Amino acid sequence: MNKLWLIFAQSVTVLLAIFFVVSTLRPELLPWTPRGKLATVKEAASVEVTPRPGSFNAAAEMAMPSVVNIFTSKEVRMPSHPLLDDPMFQRFFGERFESRPRRTSSLGSGVIVSPEGYILTNHHVVEAASEIQVALVDGRNAKARIIGSDPESDLAVLKIDLDNLPSITFGQSEQARVGDIVLAIGNPFGVGQTVTMGIIGALGRSQVGINTFENFIQTDAAINPGNSGGALTDVAGNLIGINTAIYSRTGGSLGIGFAIPANAAKQIMEQIIEAGSVTRGWLGVSMQDITPELAESFRLKKSGGALIAGVLKNGPADEAGIKPGDILLAVNGKAVADSSEMLNLVAALTPGKTVALTILRNNSEKSVNVKVGKRPT
Q1: Cα 28 from chain centroid?
Q2: Which residues sit opposite 101 in a β-bridge?
Q3: What SS3 class is residue 212?
Q4: What is the value of pTM for the model shown?
């Protein structure tokens, strides 16, 4: 009896083993398996997956190939030890201990804006660089040359010579609104291309103290060192800003980043490509914001405007009769809110063109025609 049970157990074990092998390697041989309904691993991988709601993968994949990593290097002379400048030390040892140049490197980001190889980035990314290397997402590398830069807006234009370059699409940055979702793309801390998401926190942010001309898009999308010059895009992957700076007490992102609007960056880029530099309007005045104390002393009935604190002799404003103490209210009919807006409005004017300035003098408004000059470099 025991021998029969042993034979039965062995038979069951063999059958189970055969079943396991067949179900694993050839499941279609099993009678209850529906024929033609099984997908292999390779076939399953090729099945299209519907994008999940709330994903920004399409926007990221559209913009990322256009964002490049920029590596720069330059030679700097390290300051010598104070002892080496001592006359007594030089009396015995001479001037043999001169400071030696040291090569330093830094990194940033840029955006390919045309198939011809033009790249927008920040001026501070490539400032004083003796060599610039650009790395694309597809693994290609190229040496870049500077077409021109504009320190006052912190923008620079580079050019590389490669074929089949992916260029980004410019968006309508002037249509951006507070609360819009944006993506920041760049190479933070050199870890590699990274996409972060946030919203627009403010528009027209000025008086930050970063550039001469400021009209920033403020965002809480994480922008860190290395992101400078990278792209700020909308949810369709269109360029709406060039990431420029952050407000930080630690060196990392604290949720306040600033980007130059794409429409302004495009205008500056076109001037640099055509002329090698940027031409701006100039009046030859120094301005000051109207504080509540100044408004009270001038007995102003409404806020706004910019106080003309000084007038350059023989400058455009001086020749037109503008005087210190006048309050500039409008430029060609466009109201002036403060000195920063006045600077941007005047800079946008064409040198040689005559414009009408609305000023307030002795509590009386008057219009003055001024021939715009060219802003000195």
Answers
A1: 57
A2: 77
A3: coil
A4: 0.73
